[in-house]
Every structure is written in C-alpha cells, then in structure tokens.
Amino acid sequence: MRLFSVGAGASAERAQSDSAEHPSAPIPIVGPGVGESIRVPLGETGIDTFPLMLGAAEFGWNVDLETSHGILDRYVEFGGNAIHTADGFSGGRSEHIIGQWLRSRGQRDRSLLSVRIGAHADNPGLGSVNLVRAVEGSLTRLGVERIDVLYLDATLDRTTNLEDTLATVEWLVDAGKIGALGAFGFAPERLVEARILASAGYPRIEVIDSPYNLIRRQPFEGDLRLVAGAQNLAVTPSHALEHGFLSGRHRSKALASRGVRGEQLRGHLNRRGTKILRALDQVATELDVPVAAVSIAWLLAQRTIAAPIVNTFATDHVDELMQGAGVTLSRAQVAELTRAGN
Length: 342
Hints:
The protein has helices at residues 12-21, 65-77, 93-105, 128-142, 162-174, 188-199, 220-230, 253-256, 262-266, 271-287, 291-300, 315-323, 331-340, and strands at 40-41, 48-49, 53-55, 82-86, 112-117, 147-153, 178-184, 205-209, 234-235, 309-311. It has 342 residues and is of the alpha/beta class. The chain has an 8-stranded parallel β-sheet, with helices on one face. Strands 1-2 form a two-stranded antiparallel ribbon.
C-alpha cells in the first residue's frame, strides 16, 4: 500500500476513522515533508521517483510564472521530486520557468528532471544535429548541466535512422549531459529495434511515455504494453486526467466549453464518458477522496505504470492529485472502473 496522501478537507481524526472503515483509504498528511520518503524505482534506470510526476505543459501558456512556481512549491511540500517538461512546451517558456524555480529554491539536487525533446520549432526531429542542439537548448533554458531523463519524441520524426539517433545519445551520455533515456511516440516495433541496438552496445531506452488513462485506453493497451512488460520498461503515462475530464470538473457541455480544451472535453461527454464518471464518483465516495485521486490511483494499479505525468492549472489542484499516490484501490474497485471504460 502507498503510504500517504493529502487530507481532503476532513480532519485527521475523521480521516483516521475512515481508514478504519476502508483499509484502502489514504493516510492523511499532517504537514509538509511527510511524503519525502515515498519513492518508487523508475524501471531499471537506478533512479527513484515520486509516484506522480508533475507535468509543466501549461507553464508559460495557460499558467503564469507566479502560479507555476506556486504549483511547484506545493508539489515538493508533499514530497514530490519529479518534474517533467518538453522543449516544445510554450516554445521553451516552460523550461525557463522551471529553471528560474530551480535556482530560486535551490532545488536542483533534490529534483528528478525529465525533458521531452524533438518538437521544438527551432530543432525539430531526432536527427543528430537537431538532437544535440535541442539538448543544449533545453540545458540553457533550464540553467542546468544535466537532464536526468531524456525522452525522444518521435511524433514529428518517424524516419530518422534510429541507430544514428542512439549514437548521438551515446555521445550526450558520455558528455554528462543526459542520464537515462526515454521515448515518446515510439511504435512497439521501434522499441524492439531499439532493444536490438542496445544489445549491440547503444544506449538502452528504459522509460516510455504513452498517453494513457481511463478513457484513453488505446494504443497503450495493446502491443505497446506487451513490449513494455517484456522489456521491463518504466511507463510514465502523460494525459493522466485527459485534459481535466477525469477530475470530474467538466460534466456539462457548458462547463466543458470553457478554456482551450473545450472541444476535446466535449467529445468525452457521451454515454461512455458519463459511465466512467459515475464509476469514479462511486469509488471516490467510498474512499472519501476526490475524483482526480481515484483516476490517478487506477493508473498506478496498472502493471508497468511507474509514475503518471499530471499537468495542473492551479495550486489547490495539486492537493487533490497527490492523494492519488496514497490510495490503494481494491481489486473490485479497479475492476469496476476498468469495466466502465470498456
């Protein structure tokens, strides 16, 4: 059982009583720092991560610098250590904001920093020249000397010779600029090819990011999950709350129409989406936790999942999300949620 969560407005005394009634209910946090010891292995990288990565996709776009720093502060108060960004987020502004926070808070040595590269307009793709330039650009914007986990984003580049890419990664590793290697947007057969090259001495892909959640089950629940399991890859799924839909905040077309994700959210307000929300409501009521926490807990109950990547717009949302790392769902609850999304 995961050992902590944040109290959801109830007193510690009430929460302890609830825990007695529900063995899988979260143990409330009583102050910052309690979650610092909660770490899980990030596959075979030798790195330990908090079981929830804080995504920075909204930083510099829908979230300003001050709010972004407040979100980061709140996350680390509860023991979080893993921050995820990309060189293409807000044209690099997300990295600038994180870099300012790392310096102002003195948090670099305490943070696991992962960066997805390959989608920045100045250095697109995974060709050798652009790959080096992209990594150097990210290091400069972040103000750091090393990226702990580098995700190769194949979304815009599925044709570059993988051997050339991995040879460039090898040089970057030897230069001390990156640590572990991850992948985003890689097809299962591409991951198999990468493992064959790794057996010949090239850097090994050890982490993958694939969008995955209760409502977006494919393509992960197919060959990709089989390959991840066979290769013992750590999976850090992005879009863990499907742009906020799985937080339960967007239950009508009027509410879903607000903000930049309105069209995507409205698309989920169908029979299947409503069924999933009802199942989430039921479990959330049983455990006395927010709907968002149950969505995260379902992900963490899936095999191969190490740490979902979750983006947020507001500091108070962090409290809800962190509870997901402290909830252990029963088998019956996991099964019911899974059936709702079938």
